[in-house]
Structure formats: structure tokens, C-alpha cells
Amino acid sequence: MGTKKVYITRNVSVIPVELLKEQFEVEINPEDRTLTKKELIEKLKDKDAVITQLADKVDKEVLQNAPNLKMIANYAVGFNNIDVDEATKRGIRVSNTPNVLSDTTAEMAWALLFSVTRRIYEGDRYVREGKWNSFSPNLLWGQDVTGKTLGLIGAGRIGKAFAKKSVGFDMKILYHNRSRDEEFEKVYNAVYVDKDTLLKESDFISMHIPFTNETKHMIGEREFKQMKNTAIIINTARGQVIDEKALVKALKEKEIWGAGLDVFENEPELEEGLKELDNVVLMPHVASGSIETRTKMGKIVAENIIRVLNGDEPLTPVNKL
What we know:
It is built from twelve helices and twelve strands. It has about 325 residues and is α/β, with parallel strands linked by helices. The chain has two domains: about 5-100 and about 290-310, 3-Layer(aba) Sandwich (Rossmann fold); about 100-280, Rossmann fold, CATH 3.40.50. The strands form two sheets. Strands 8-7-6-9-10-11-12 form a seven-stranded parallel β-sheet, sandwiched between helices. Helix 7 links the parallel strand 6 and strand 7 (about 170-175). The longest helix is centred in the last third of the chain and has 19 residues, at about 290-310. The mean pLDDT is about 95.
């Protein structure tokens, strides 16, 4: 039958490649870039399994040209880069890396929130450019976090981890979710509200929802107009849940105070005018990028490949066959 073949679309150092090589023939993209669709199709035409990244668009055309493919192990918790329905039709397993990056991503959301409220980016640049001459009581006023109202759009694992970390700041928690979570409400004294109420009453809004057809541009021009002009929006979820054109307009016109973004609608491209604004902090999609978390993710994708190619169920399945 021959040795099964595994392809890794990006050379991620924490993936235990040696474990895979003990059983399979492994090929790794040697370049630190995303493959083109043509390249991905070429590489997968004789592979049994692939470890993919969020930037790899594994669509119907790619799957149609991968007749041997049995497993797609996505090195991420999200999987909107993969046509899961088409994979399921073709008997291809799909897995992700949930449960290991909730706290790490929530920490990044908090880092962004503090950076915007206390104008860290502006202050750092002010010092580095030699503009700081002496203490000034009027310099770079920010906002307090303690005692404010925190609005969560999405109360899954990451949203709850984010809420948990707010306890020490005596914050009121509002949340909007597909369904109520009474246990979450009980533990964190959270209040379930509709989206409009959350937008109007929250001082800080943090996005923790997946990207779907229903959540695309969930926050747009209408929503920004409902927010307080002191409101801050944080997004560590998916860029497409916010209409980036409307966000730039809201930031420019001071409809809201600021934003902290780790994800973007058309990443790595930014909406025109976004990077010129001082009231937004931009990060290059690294919310799960801690040494500990990325190492755990690497172990999960490798274990999922090993299990499926040996006839077992993956540890973290996305689809059922």
C-alpha cells in the first residue's frame, strides 16, 4: 500500500514533525509564505493528509484535485478557510485546535483594550520620537477600565475567558449570544441583552464570534452610530464580522473612542485609512501566539493526523463521517 504522505503548508517549528516522520512521508513548504491555490492543488494531488493554516483556502476546487486526501488538520480553532461540507461529502476528516487557546486569546483582547484605553501606542511613539520633555498633567488622557460596562458579543470559550479576567476590575458584564447561558450569568453576574442594548450601554465591546454568513458585518455603520462616543471595540475573532469601511469612518469621525484589532476583513490588506489613525491599535493576527499555546496546537494537529491515518477518530473533529 505504500507509506502515507503528509503535507504541511507552513513550516511551524512547534509541530512535532519527527513524530509524523516516524510513520509517514512528510513534506513541508520551505518558504515562509502562503501557497497559491495552484501550488496547493499541486502539492495535495498525491497526499493523504495535510496540516493547514487559516490563510490556506481549501475550497471545492482544491478538494476535487486531492483524490487521496483523508484528513485536513487545521492549525487553528477557526475553520472558515475550509469547505467542510465538501470535505464531508468526499469522506475527508477535518479537525481544529480548540480548548487550548482560549486564555491566550482572551489575554490579547485585554492587551488591546488596555492599549487603547491608556493610549499605549501613542505614548510609546511620543517617547521614541523625542517629544517628551517633562511631566505634563494634560498629556495623553485615557480612560479607566475599573467599574465600566463590558459588552461581549459571543460567550463561547474565549468570551467566557475574557469575562473571567474582568472580575478584578469590578465591571458590569452584558452579553449577546445565540442563546442564553444561565450558568455564565450566575457565575459572573452577566446580563443577557439584545445586540442593540449591548451597543448602547457598553463602554467596551469585545467580539468573540465565528465568521459565518450570519455574522458577516455584524458590526457596521448602523451599529457604530448606536455606540457611545467613548466606546472602544476589540476584535480578536474574525475580521469579517466588522465592516472595516464603516469602522474607519467611525474612528475618523470620532463616533467611537477607539478600536483594538488583531484580525482584519481582507488580511493582510488593511482598509484604506486605517493604519493612519492614532485611535486604533493593530496587531498581525497573533492572539494565540504564545509559546505555550502554539506548542499545544502543534501537538494536537500532529496527533490528529496520526490517529486518522491509523484508522482512529481525531481528538478534535470538526465534521462527522
